[in-house]
Structure formats: structure tokens, C-alpha cells
Amino acid sequence: MTHSSLKETITKLGEKGFRAEQIFRYFHQQDGQSIMDIDIIPIKLREELTSYYTVNSLRILHKLKSEVDGTIKYLFLLPDDNIIEGVVMSYSHGYSMCISTQVGCKMGCSFCASTKEGLVRNLTAAEMVNQIYEAEKDLGIRISNVVLMGSGEPLDNYENVVDFFDIINSKLGRNISLRNITLSTCGIVPGIYKLAKKNIPITLSISLHSPFDDKRAEIMPIANKYGLEELMEALRHYSAITNRRITFEYTLIKGTNDGEKEAIEIARLLNGMLAHVNLIPLNPIREYNEGRPDKDHVLKFQSMLKKLGVIATIRREMGSDISASCGQLRRSVLEEK
Ligand code: SAH
Fold it and tell me: What separation in Å is there between the alpha carbon of 220 and the centre of ligand 1?
């Protein structure tokens, strides 16, 4: 629950609003685990709350640490036996965590392991914050940056994701700055307008993967629903309202979307926009037969973009030895089962 919905609940139960603040602090600042243990609130309220509500918890099922760069990947077990992934990365500016927003995903991108089993269910806001809290407790650290780039499509779970922002950013809780949060989407246009309307200063990251509608639709079924023109219009609107630079993720697939004509079209598409392209060389998965371009080609693609005036970086790869990308580990564990 966000602090405001908790306050509403508490008031409805005939209690003073400040009790909500005490309860919220207990769970989000003091690592509290049980309603009955909140001894600064009256026992009657504790009992009442316990009869209506439960405290969400998830358990670390599996933990892998990369020998290469210290990246840590968790598999978390949810109370209904579903499994999700989260990844903690260490940077010079602190710890960043990539969390999942859904169990599985229904978007069907051809190269992505997260979607191969379809969507099982949305994660609640509690399950999103708890991925962070469990990792923090386990490692004895504080997470300062969050990316919604794990399994799932965040804008397909809009309400819970917005509640997650509210909770994780709360001054009564972890108070992680919204500017340190990135939401990655395959391009669900109505969700982008809803986010713009809220004017939440997160960083929006768009999975582009091709600047051509037909090719994009081959790789990403969502492109059949929302074409590039419509998507770009939504992004220009988002950018005008929030004044935030938009990131475009571009997974480079050998011989598919890594040619000069793509670079030229990307530059045309992003012309005049506050944008930045992040190149991700494909991490091949079994269900997708295409390959990964070699390093020289990735550098060449980057320099083509730069010559065309597009700011482009190559994503630093982390945890490549521990299946750290999108849904890979969960999928291998499900297969084993
Ligand atoms: N559903 C959201 C967020 C999840 S994926 C989205 O589509 O943006 C985060 C990023 O990783 C996306 O850009 C996705 O396209 C990319 N990705 C997924 N699987 C990949 C793979 N096997 N190789 C390279 N990039 C991948």
C-alpha cells in the first residue's frame, strides 16, 4: 500500500491518520516484517489490521554471483510459488537494481526469454519493493538506482508500477529519487500518455530495435498495434511535458537491424529530439535463431550513428556468465523443473 492508501484505510478504521505514518515507516524504513510487532500502535489496531491484511514476503530461492564483475542475480520465490528474477549491479555511483514487474510477459518479442512462457500474472507494488528490500538485506547495502528492465512489461501493469514509484520514493520510506529510476517499455502508447500526464520525473526508456515498422513488427508484435509514427508522437509529447531525455534501447541483431540504412533511419526518426540510443548486442537464446554482431560491427554501428548526430552508447554488459539478461535464468530453472 502507498502511504496515502494506508492512511485512508486507517482513517476508515476510526484511527488517527498519523498511525499510517508509523506503520509505513515500520515496514519501509525499519525492515519490519509483521503487523503484530508494530508495538507503537495499539494492540487492537494491530489485531484488526491482521484480520484484513497480510504482509507480502518473497524468499531468495537462488543467488548467483558473477566472477567477471560481481553482478548478483537473484531468483525470488513468491508466496504462490511463482519465480521472478532481480539483478544487482555495482557501479562507482552506488548499487543499481534491475527488477521484474510481471511473472512472465505477454509481449512476445522474438528474442526475449521472459516472454516464452507467456504472462502468468502482474506483480503487486509490494512484490516490486520487496525485490529491492530482500537484496538489500541479503547484501547489507542500500540500492540507489532502480531499473524496471527485468521480466515483464511495466506499462502493461501500470497501476501497480505507479504505486511502486510512490512507495519507493516516499520520504517515509526508502526515498529513492525518481530521477534514479528508469522504466523500460516496448512502446505501449496509452501508457506513455498516462505517464506524461502524471509528470513523474523518471527516465523513460523505449525498446526500439528497428526504425522500420515492418521489421519492428517482425521482432516485436506490439509494433502491429502501435506504429512508429504514433509512438514517436507520444514520445515527443512525453518529452515536451517532462523535459526529460528519452533513452532508446536498440538490441543489435546480426544482419537483421544492424545496417547503414537502419542507422540513417534512426537518425531521421530521432532528429530534433532529446534522445540517447543505447546499443545492446543480442544475447542469443535458444528459441531465436539470429546471432549477435561481433564487437567491431557494434562499434561501427555506433560510429555511424555518431556521425549522423545521434548520441549512442554501447550497454556495458554485466553478469554475462550468470545468465543475467532478461528472463534467462528463470527460464532455465523452469525447464529443469
Ligand atoms: N518490457 C520492457 C522491459 C524488459 S526488457 C521492454 O520491452 O523494454 C529490457 C530490455 O532488454 C528491452 O530493450 C529488451 O528488448 C531487451 N532484451 C530482452 N531480451 C534480450 C536479449 N536476449 N538480448 C538483448 N536484449 C534483450
Answer: 10
**Residues 123 and 152 sit within 8 Å (Cβ to Cβ):** yes
- Alpha-carbon distance 122 to 104, whole Å? 9
- Which residue has the least CA distance to atom 18 on ligand 1? 112
Which residue's alpha carbon is nearest to atom 13 within ligand 1? 207
Q: Which of 101, 251, 328 to mutate to test the pocket of ligand 1 (most atoms within 8 A of CB)?
A: 251
98 ligand 1 Cβ < 6 A: no
Q: Is the pTM of this model over 0.70?
A: yes
Concerning whether 186 is annotated as a catalytic residue, the answer is no
- d(C-alpha 287, C-alpha 278), whole Å: 24
pLDDT tens digits, one per residue of 239-278 = 999 999 999 999 999 999 999 999 999 999 999 898 999 9
Phi/psi at 197 (5° precision): -60, -40
Q: Which three cell numbers stand for residue 220?
A: 516485436
CA distance 119 to 82: 12
Q: Annotated catalytic residue: which of 85, 127, 249, 262?
A: 85
* Mean pLDDT within 175-185: 97
Could you give the domains of the chain? Answer: 3-52 (1.10.150.530), 74-336 (3.20.20.70)
Query: Catalytic annotation on 85?
Result: yes
- Specify the residue for cell string 491518520: 17
Comparing 91 with 146, the larger pLDDT belongs to: 146
